[in-house]
Write a structure and sequence with these properties.
By secondary structure, this protein is mostly beta strands. The chain has one helix and seven strands; from the N terminus they run E-E-E-E-H-E-E-E. A seven-stranded parallel sheet has the order 1-2-3-4-5-6-7, with no helix packed on it. The longest helix is centred in the middle third of the chain and has 5 residues. It starts with a strand and ends in an 18-residue tail after the last strand.
Length: about 170
């Protein structure tokens, strides 16, 4: 029997490593794990079939390492929600998400911007939603590399005062 969807909710941080052998999953939900400041680097190393990753209510999560996203070649959707202490996303990790079509970021109150070069590898990204991120202030000019972008939704981001000029080159938008 192979598991296609796995929900990890409310476990202790050290127990996360016990889930790394579920390599046939295609959807993973990591939710409500207290006191986790970072996910183990090799946590998703063998999850090459994963096409949806949802990280929700990891209130103490401060960052995601580049290695956490390293082997997620099939990932189509990355959703990060309610991570109050998350200040940044991994630049090199995002660059490797070549198959990703959707990036949703909700209520990450400390997130200031997307990584400058992190968008360059997202050549199939169709939807970019950044919502209710109080400190989010910048979308860099490199957004021009998102040539397949159809939907850009910066909503309820009071720190974002303008969009980059390069957005005019996004003909699919």
């Amino acid at each position: 029997m192979s598991v296609k969807t796995l929900i990890i909710r409310g476990v202790n941080g050290p127990l996360l490593t016990s889930f790394r052998n579920f390599t046939s999953i295609t959807s993973l939900y990591i939710e409500e794990i207290p006191n986790v400041k970072g996910l183990p680097n090799d946590f998703l190393q063998n999850h090459t079939l994963l096409d949806h990753l949802n990280i929700d209510k990891l209130r103490n999560l401060e960052s995601l390492s580049n290695k956490i996203l390293d082997n997620l070649f099939a990932l189509k959707s990355l959703e990060i929600r309610n991570c109050d202490n998350l200040e940044s996303l991994p630049e090199k990790g995002l660059q490797k998400l070549h198959s990703s079509e959707v990036l949703r970021i909700y209520q990450c109150r400390r997130l200031y911007s997307l990584p400058i070069n992190g968008l360059c590898g997202l050549s199939f990204l169709r939807r970019l939603w950044i919502q209710s991120c109080a400190k989010f202030a910048y979308l860099f000019e490199r957004v021009r590399y998102l040539t397949t972008l159809e939907n850009l939704s910066p909503y309820d981001c009071p720190g974002l005062n303008s969009l980059p000029k390069s957005i005019q080159h996004l003909i699919s938008l």
